[in-house]
Amino acid sequence: MSDDSGPGQLLRGPTPLNPIRGLLRQVQLVWFLLRDRRVPIWLKVIPFLSLAYLAIPADVVPDVLVGLGQLDDVAVIALGCRLFLEFSPPAVVQEYLDDMIASAAGWKVVEGEAESVDDV
Fold first, then answer.
1. In this structure, is residue 118 part of a structural domain?
2. Dist. CA 16–CA 45, nearest whole Å
3. Nearest to 80 by CA among 120, 107, 48, 113
4. How large a percentage of the chain has pLDDT more than 70?
5. How does DSSP classify residue 88?
6. Are 88 and 29 in contact (CB under 8 A)?
7. What is the C-alpha separation between 44 and 21, in angstroms, rounded?
8. 30-64, pLDDT tens digit by residue?
9. I need a labelling partner for 14 at 20 to 30 A (CA). Which of 5, 84, 105, 120 fits?
10. Residue 1 lies in a domain
11. Which residue has the higher pLDDT, 62 or 92?
């Protein structure tokens, strides 16, 4: 069963062929969630544990193999960020995603009443 309504679907955006943009959005979202008090502290440990993997001398693929050695490091960090996003409170994640989408489109999300403005 596939659910396309999670944060992963929204982070990919309209161009799934651009993985760098998706990765940057994911890192930005993780940063916002790390600073939010509504996200439990035990969840905030996950991204830091994935970063700690870089300091461990034992790797799945040795760093001596240029390119391949760094690929497992990137994969572990991406997995840590992904787990953090999946276990974070969905309402908080959605709030930040809405803000990110609105700011990318040049819109600002404001709570309150809407009124029509006619440009002359």
1. no
2. 28
3. 48
4. 66
5. S
6. no
7. 23
8. 999 999 999 999 999 999 998 888 887 776 666 66
9. 84
10. no
11. 92
How many domains, in total, are found in the chain? 1
Ramachandran quadrant class, 51 (left: phi over 0; alpha: psi -120 to 50; beta: rest): alpha
Number of neighbouring beta carbons within 10 Å of residue 26: 19
Query: 103 φ, ψ to 5°?
Result: -70, -30
**pLDDT at residue 37 in the model:** 95
In a domain, 21, yes or no: yes
Sequence-separated (6 or more) residues with CB below 8 Å from residue 50: 76, 77, 79, 80, 81
In degrees, rounded to 5, the angle at the alpha carbon of residue 34 between the alpha carbons of residues 50 and 45 is: 40
Residue 68 lies in a domain: yes
DSSP state of 39: S
Distance from C-alpha of 54 to C-alpha of 30, rounded to nearest angstrom? 18
